[in-house]
């Protein structure tokens, strides 16, 4: 089982405070969804967890199974099993998808126990089939010229192959048509396990019809301001966020 905790997290971007004391605990087997208006700091939270150098933590703690995540370098966080499917995956010319994935897998393994090429290709082929991806994507440069939906599917391919213990999906559903959404959701559901937690950042309840969250959190102005079950996502979809602002006396 895993336990991932965020405690009183504050972070700045270019000197501006975006995360303003955020708390969240996720245990193995749990799926958490974070919803919130645009610009509220959801992607900042994701990048801060991963250790992106633009985001400076000024207060608070993040731990994974008791280990101090903030002490870890970016590659150590990945090795510890934290994974982010980015809202806007970057294109990397000159590095094929297969090369990228193979080195990402090997980075998580001990030296001397790297995955064999044959085994890697077999795994990649089978996961690509599950995601209904054209095999040619194996040899394409990473995300270069991929459509929005193809990029998202490719992020899920990485998740399936890396088998992380903390999975953060940042708007994985945006730009997906309903068929692609179903495929992506099936990939996520297949990965549900007692020793893995998911943090699903989304604007829409639609994805949550396919991937049932245990907890739904509302993020506003750099904090989680309300938590509940799946019914909270439905209410947000129907009524928006104003009622929460009123309830909490937030104005912006
Ligand atoms: P969300 O994902 O909830 O829509 P973001 O985390 O992307 O929100 O953005 C929160 C705020 O932080 C916004 O005001 C945004 O402009 C700012 N911000 C995020 N990343 C950067 C960055 N790299 N440089 C400057 N400002 C940033
Ligand atoms: Mg946004
Ligand atoms: Mg965002």
TrEMBL record:
SMART domains: AAA. It comes from the Bacteria. Residues 4-246 form the ABC transporter domain. Keywords: ATP-binding, Nucleotide-binding. Transmembrane segments: none annotated. PROSITE patterns: ABC_TRANSPORTER_1 (PS00211), ABC_TRANSPORTER_2 (PS50893). Coiled coil: none annotated. InterPro entries: AAA+_ATPase (IPR003593), ABC_transporter-like_ATP-bd (IPR003439), ABC_transporter-like_CS (IPR017871), FeS-cluster_ATPase_SufC (IPR010230), P-loop_NTPase (IPR027417). Gene3D superfamilies: P-loop containing nucleotide triphosphate hydrolases. The keyword Lipid metabolism does not apply. Belongs to the ABC transporter superfamily. Ycf16 family. This is Fe-S cluster assembly ATPase SufC. The gene is sufC.
